[in-house]
Give the backbone structure.
Amino acid sequence: MMKGQEKSYKKYEGIHKMNKAFTDILKKLVTEQGKEVLFNPAKCKAFLADYTRGDYKKESRFLLQAIEAGAAKAIDTAEDIATCKKQQTRVLREEYGLAEEIAADAVNTLALALRGEEKEKTLCKNCGKELADEWKACPFCGTQVVEREAGSVTSSSSGSVDYGGWPISSMSQLNPDARKLLESGQIYSNKKDFDNAIKQFNEVIKLFPNFALVYGLRGDVYHEQGKYDIAARDYTEVIRLNPNDACAYSRRGCAYVNQHEYDTAIRDFSEAIRFGKNDFYFTRGISYRLQGQYDMAIRDYTEVIRLNQNDVSDAYLERGSIYHDQGQYDLAIRDYTEMSRLDPNNVYAYVNRGETYRTQGQLDLAIKDYTEAIRIHPNYAYAYSQRGETYRMQNRYNEAISDLNEAIRLEPGNAFAYCVLGYTYRMQGQNIVAISNLNEAIRLDPNYAFAYGIRGQAYRQMAQKKRGYPGL
């Protein structure tokens, strides 16, 4: 399988964000399987594939990178969770090449799954010290603390409230009371207090039932809650009131994708693009790919590249993956090479190009790429296992065994590494060791047909030798 082909569909303004549905899946996984599952990348990967039913691949990839980096163990044992999250985000950014917002999102999602919602600390605006809720003044510097009623939020001017990319020029239609309700609702939404956010938005709708913005903001809340059908209805109401609202089309498209309604999503992304949201070519390309409309996906990725948008590096990766699957290996290599030029520390450019080289039989070039991936990410088990397989193909068995053992050390649940290691020992005639490794591969993946086949060969050779016939 090619690495890095996935894309998040919670993509509003070019920001990749793990949505609440994925977080809820992760919480369910921890509840049912125990938090230890998040300490083992291979086991977590297998369970995620099952629990997500193959969806949320991009989110899963980022999360697994965080787990590989040791973020889950660090978060689970941290006394100062805020400092720990900052440290782990920095590790993912500096050592794994993740963007700041993606790294922070992966770390925050792990924290939610392992430790739940933690109360945000109140800090003194003057000295920065943590304050207890009952304090009226900071005991460290004497600064007065603004009193807040339980459950209330401090409102502010509309310019300081983040409305998630929605145009807010229409707010002049509201009277002061309705505007205050809207602002309070959005502040609740930004704080993830969704129930109170919806209550505030509902009050605005009672006062101004034809005010489009409030439906969009409420739709965002439902989307964050994983209630995609309700979110889509709210976005539809925005479109009814404002048929040219590109933001509503794009977000309704995201809701449809999360419901696997790709045809409808594609129509909405097309409308969003028509009304000026050109940053949705990439997401529409993902929808086309999921439908198997590869030529249309390639066309959209090519447009992202032509426009030189934020997703251009991922567009090369996605387009290269399709070219590889179509057997257009030279085009795939060209795209991966361009991606490595744009993002030199992205390991997926090298492992994907390495796989393409190996498919072409250019084994030395494949090993060179896997080696570069390992240089960038020394703990990347996948790269070790793939380089080990390539060494095996060159009959460089000792080097293969070394790489495969390292892959297993880094990822003890790596069935592929055990299988190739067993195959390598089988090629050396060490059938007992081969069978032991193949048994482990089958234990980890009971449906691993290739491992059964190689184990059968090893048993047959042992039987032939026992009867006095060297055989295989």
About this structure: The chain is about 65% helix and 0% strand. The CA atoms of residues 79 and 85 lie 11 Å apart.
